[in-house]
Amino acid sequence: MDHYSTTATSSAPGFELHAARGRFNAAFFRVMDPYMEGTLRRQKRRVFAGLPRVVVEIGSGVGANLRYLPAGGTLVAIEPNRHMHGLLRAAASRAGVKLDLRERMAEQTGLPDHSADTVISSLVLCSVQDPAAVLAEIRRVLRPGGTFRFLEHVVAGSGTPTRAAQRILRRPWAWTFEGCSCERDLEGSLRAAGFGSVAIERYRVHTPFLPFNTHIAGIARA
């Protein structure tokens, strides 16, 4: 993947974020980064092992995954919440990673067809407006044989306490975390998205945020 600016920021036409929630989420994920990293480190080390020098990330947030990129590499960051941008730039500078920051929605990244070797995401497909459209966009920008590497929280099994908590808390959870749904069957979405292969591990994390406890991690190949 090449020919990308490392400084420009482009805006998605007509897109606006609720300012208070945007600022809250930027602050929340900055404060929670050490805790989240400790919770997800084992899966991230496996899924993000050996990332290439140029990576596209859907929903880069405040830079939680920069630590998995090689020093001197480039992150093409698709991040619509502009309140994250200052923290993301600072984190990229500390990590020694070049940043190509794009203020766009994941459904329309603006990247060329078949231009990326690797796309990554973590805890993002839960909050996009249209997961199927995002996965189609990821397939579009990946080169043949390229990989989409992901960690996501997903709907729990029917009849479980976690599923009951997800159902009860779905509206305040979504309002607080910018549309995040704790009830999406993202494994089903990934398997139906048309990738050449999809390898998925299911696992649980143990946190006070009960709707967040059921997860998947894996690699899909174009």
Automatic annotation (TrEMBL):
Keyword Iron assigned: no
Biological process, per Gene Ontology: methylation
Entry annotated with the keyword Plastid: no
Alphabetically ordered keywords of this record: Methyltransferase, Transferase, Ubiquinone
Molecular function as annotated in GO: S-adenosylmethionine-dependent methyltransferase activity
Domain of life: Bacteria
Domain Methyltransferase type intervals: 56-149
Pfam family membership, one: Methyltransf_11
PANTHER family referenced in this protein's UniProt entry, alphabetically: METHYLTRANSFERASE LIKE 7A, METHYLTRANSFERASE LIKE 7B
Annotated protein name in UniProt: Ubiquinone/menaquinone biosynthesis C-methylase UbiE
Taxonomic classification: Bacteria, Bacillati, Actinomycetota, Actinomycetes, Micrococcales
